[in-house]
Structures are given as C-alpha cells and as structure tokens.
C-alpha cells in the first residue's frame, strides 16, 4: 500500500513477476500504476506491505532499499518523462548507465593499468552493440537532445538494458510515438526480452501495443487490482470492460 497524506494511491495489490515474462500494467489515469512502479524500483517506499525479490532462491526484501541498491540487484527502469543526460552524447548516456557494473574500473583508470583499457574496450563494445539493436549506433556521437523524440525514448530503453537487468520496467515506452514507431518498438521489446532472457514489465495506454505484445496483464483501477490475466482474458473480462476498456476493448 502507498498513502500520500490522506490519499491512498495503491492498496491491496498483490503481484507476482516471474522470470522471462512480458507483463503489462494498465489502468486509467491516476490508477496507481506509476506509484506501483516507484515502489518496486525504490523511488518511494511502501506505507505497508512487502516487496520481495527472489535472487536465485534467496528472498530479498526491497521495502527499505534505495533505488541504486535495487538497480544493483537487477531491476532497471525508464520513466514517463525522458530523463536522459541531454547534453551528453548518445554513447556516453549508455556508458554512464554501465558504470555500476565496472566499479573496479575506477582505480584501474586512475592508475592507467592495462586492464583499464581492456575493460574500456569491453564496455564501449557492449554499449555499441546495444545501440545497434535499437538502430542508434549511427547516432552515437550526437548529443542526446538532438535526437528526435521517438529515438530519445529508445535510448532510454538502451540505458535500462545497459545495466544488465533481470527485470526492466518501462513506464509508457510508446508515449508520444506514432503507430509505425509504436509497432517497431513492440518488435524491439519482444526481441530484447527473448535475446537477453529478461522480464519486461510495462505501463502502457496503447491497447494495441499491450494486447499484441504481452503475456499477462494486471489491471489497476483507483489504486486496487481489478483483474489479472492473459490479453484474451482481460479483453473479455466484464469488470475491466465496464471500468476501463469500454468501447476500446
Ligand atoms: N508524490 C505524490 N504525492 C501525492 N499524490 C500523489 C503522488 N504521486 C501520485 N499521487 C497520486 O496518486 C494517485 C495515483 O497516481 P499514479 O501517478 O500512480 O497513477 P497512474 O496510474 O500512473 O496514472 P497515469 O496513467 O496518469 O500516469 C493519483 O491520485 C496521484 O495524484
């Protein structure tokens, strides 16, 4: 549960995220989707309830962990509003996201050990490979702010992936994209989920994207869980249709 003063933003939500899954979190504006993401990724703490991460059989409580500690456990995310380093190059944006995994590199870098150069090569190669998947390698020396909006959103996902996550949370990845860009993004999300064997959880208002892409859907409404099921089950769920999907469903 999460309360903001007198307002209960999320209440009584039970959610299980399995490995190698593609899940969507849907619901009308103000349903509590981003608040739930924020709790899962340590941006805010829950007022009550438990969040547990299973790390190879070891149960780890995420309740009081800081966002960076949760990121280190392998939970990466993007935000609804783009949060790139706008004046840095596309490549540098990805490299910064990767530094967590190469902490020992700092001392190596200061002392200019040969291993530093080897590590640097490995990191840059990995960053370029990730950018290539998203067709951003040709833009890697451009400043992030000079990319068109749709590509900036893609770069955000690459930054999340650069952290080698086990779970990648995407907050409205297709927001502001046209139908072609959205369709291309859906393909990419499916591709990276399979290729990197990660779990992807996305918040999305674009129902065509959600219904064609994910395996399971959680529906939130006014902070509570309205339904959970496959896209087919959710499309036919009368409560969901009444409360949310309506004509769109
Ligand atoms: N930091 C905050 N302080 C006070 N109230 C908040 C805060 N963050 C969210 N809320 C409130 O909590 C409720 C849930 O908001 P939330 O942003 O999680 O919904 P959402 O489902 O992500 O909506 P949207 O689809 O519009 O992004 C809303 O009533 C919102 O106004």
Automatic annotation (TrEMBL):
<protein>
    <submittedName>
        <fullName>ABC transporter, ATP-binding protein</fullName>
    </submittedName>
</protein>
<dbReference type="GO" id="GO:0015192">
    <property type="term" value="F:L-phenylalanine transmembrane transporter activity"/>
</dbReference>
<keyword id="KW-0547">Nucleotide-binding</keyword>
<dbReference type="InterPro" id="IPR003439">
    <property type="entry name" value="ABC_transporter-like_ATP-bd"/>
</dbReference>
<dbReference type="InterPro" id="IPR051120">
    <property type="entry name" value="ABC_AA/LPS_Transport"/>
</dbReference>
<dbReference type="GO" id="GO:0016887">
    <property type="term" value="F:ATP hydrolysis activity"/>
</dbReference>
<dbReference type="GO" id="GO:0005886">
    <property type="term" value="C:plasma membrane"/>
</dbReference>
<dbReference type="Pfam" id="PF12399">
    <property type="entry name" value="BCA_ABC_TP_C"/>
</dbReference>
<dbReference type="InterPro" id="IPR003593">
    <property type="entry name" value="AAA+_ATPase"/>
</dbReference>
<feature type="domain" description="ABC transporter">
    <location>
        <begin position="1"/>
        <end position="247"/>
    </location>
</feature>
<dbReference type="Pfam" id="PF00005">
    <property type="entry name" value="ABC_tran"/>
</dbReference>
<dbReference type="GO" id="GO:0005524">
    <property type="term" value="F:ATP binding"/>
</dbReference>
<dbReference type="GO" id="GO:0015808">
    <property type="term" value="P:L-alanine transport"/>
</dbReference>
<keyword id="KW-0813">Transport</keyword>
<dbReference type="GO" id="GO:0015188">
    <property type="term" value="F:L-isoleucine transmembrane transporter activity"/>
</dbReference>
<dbReference type="GO" id="GO:1903805">
    <property type="term" value="P:L-valine import across plasma membrane"/>
</dbReference>
<dbReference type="GO" id="GO:1903806">
    <property type="term" value="P:L-isoleucine import across plasma membrane"/>
</dbReference>
<dbReference type="InterPro" id="IPR027417">
    <property type="entry name" value="P-loop_NTPase"/>
</dbReference>
<dbReference type="GO" id="GO:0005304">
    <property type="term" value="F:L-valine transmembrane transporter activity"/>
</dbReference>
<keyword id="KW-0067">ATP-binding</keyword>
<dbReference type="GO" id="GO:0042941">
    <property type="term" value="P:D-alanine transmembrane transport"/>
</dbReference>
<dbReference type="InterPro" id="IPR032823">
    <property type="entry name" value="BCA_ABC_TP_C"/>
</dbReference>
């Amino acid at each position: 549960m999460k309360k903001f003063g007198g307002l209960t933003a999320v209440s009584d939500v039970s959610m299980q995220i399995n490995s190698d899954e593609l899940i969507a979190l849907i619901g009308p504006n103000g349903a509590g989707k981003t608040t739930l993401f924020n709790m899962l990724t340590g941006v805010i703490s829950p007022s009550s309830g438990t969040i547990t991460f299973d790390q190879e059989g070891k149960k780890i409580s995420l309740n009081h962990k800081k966002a960076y500690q949760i990121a280190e456990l392998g939970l990466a995310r993007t935000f609804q509003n783009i949060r790139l380093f706008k004046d840095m190059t596309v490549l540098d944006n990805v490299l910064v996201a990767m530094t967590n995994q190469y902490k020992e590199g700092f001392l190596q870098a200061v002392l200019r050990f040969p291993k530093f150069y080897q590590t640097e090569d490995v990191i840059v190669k990995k960053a370029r490979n990730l950018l290539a998947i998203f067709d951003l390698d040709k833009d890697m020396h451009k400043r992030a702010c000079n990319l068109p909006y749709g590509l900036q959103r893609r770069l955000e996902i690459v930054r999340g992936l650069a952290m080698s996550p086990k779970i990648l949370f995407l907050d409205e990845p297709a927001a502001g994209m046209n139908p072609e860009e959205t369709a291309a993004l859906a393909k990419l999300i499916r591709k990276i989920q399979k290729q990197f064997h990660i779990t992807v959880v996305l918040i999305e208002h674009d129902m065509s994207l959600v219904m064609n892409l994910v395996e399971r859907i959680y529906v939130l409404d006014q902070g509570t869980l309205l339904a959970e099921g496959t896209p087919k089950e959710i499309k036919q769920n009368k409560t969901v249709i009444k409360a949310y999907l309506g004509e769109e469903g």
